[in-house]
Design brief:
With about 240 residues, the chain is of the alpha/beta class. It is built from nine helices and seven strands; from the N terminus they run E-H-E-H-H-E-H-E-E-E-H-E-H-H-H-H. Helix 1 links the parallel strand 1 and strand 2. The radius of gyration is 20 Å and the shape is elongated.
């Protein structure tokens, strides 16, 4: 039995092929069998092969992408790992504690766990492509984890807390897709653009709304209802602007 058949691990620009090999072993340890890599293809590198040991199959089947957006095309939810939390004004790096991530097996659709570079992690524009960013609790004196260690800690947590003894049973309520969440976000963006906000507040307002959607784990029906409401608000705002003109 594969404990987490809907989980995908995405490595963005891994710089050490040996780490990629170790990561494949971690995936096999904790019931995840799909790996995606953004950037150079490390699959034939000596250390990637050497350290993957009995997880060669995961390494060989890993899919290579040019950029993160392409790697997330068919993903319904994307959770980004980050060690760098922003201060209160940083909505892009408003991090969710690892312990608050929900059970992946209770959610419909494909879920990506996204991990960044060993040296710099994920950039803000990459985190913005994800539905939420989460962090692993570590010492403040040295918060950065080795890539394979970070993947190990995250998957161990999910496995020890949520791994099922029986094959997962999906709820009847279908989770909202990325496209559905993006549609309601576009209507919300249109509303924000019509408001008398200071220029620097506009992208913050838009990002906060996306953060809320990402953490809400909404069903398709809920997002459809929300889309209808936000679209109607957008229409009313636009109609009011035309009357004032």
């Amino acid at each position: 039995m594969v404990e987490f058949p809907n989980l995908v691990v995405v490595l963005v620009d891994p710089q050490n092929p040996g780490n990629v090999g170790f990561v494949t072993r971690v995936l096999a340890n904790f019931g995840v069998h799909e790996l995606r890599i953004v950037g150079e293809d490390p699959r034939k590198e000596q250390f990637a092969q050497m350290f993957s040991v009995h997880a060669h199959d995961i390494l060989h089947k890993a899919i290579i992408f040019d950029d993160l957006k392409s790697a997330l095309t068919d993903v319904d939810l994307a959770w980004a790992s980050s060690a760098r939390a922003g201060r209160n004004h940083s909505v892009t790096r408003a991090l969710v504690p690892l312990a608050e991530l929900p059970d992946p097996n209770s959610l419909d659709g494909r879920i990506a766990l996204v991990f960044g570079r060993e040296s710099t992690g994920l950039f803000n524009d990459e985190i913005a492509l994800c539905d939420l960013a989460f962090t692993v609790p570590t010492s403040k004196e040295y918060p950065s984890l080795n890539l394979s260690h970070a993947v190990s800690v995250v998957l161990y947590h999910l496995f020890s807390k949520y791994a099922p003894e029986e094959p997962r049973q999906l709820s009847e309520a279908r989770a909202a897709t990325h496209q559905e969440r993006e549609q309601v976000s576009k209507f919300f963006d249109d509303v924000v653009d019509q408001l008398s906000l200071k220029e620097h507040r506009i992208p913050i307002a838009k990002q906060v709304f996306r953060n809320l959607l990402g953490r809400a784990y909404m069903t398709g029906r809920e997002v459809a209802t929300l889309t209808g409401i936000v679209r109607r608000i957008s229409e009313l705002v636009n109609d009011n602007e035309k009357l004032e003109d």
